Fold:
Amino acid sequence: MSNLSNNIQNIEASRSSIEDADFAAEQIWLRTRYRRNQPTAMLAQASAIS
Structure:
């Protein structure tokens, strides 16, 4: 029973690490997307003002 409990804890820890890595990757993707779109948004605003 102890072995099963240890396996469950290890799986949960692994799952948590994977979720953390997924979250970090998603943050990087969103930051990159924002930075790519920022100049376009600034140009659109400048055009709207002119």
Notes: Residues 29 and 35 are 10 Å apart (CA to CA).
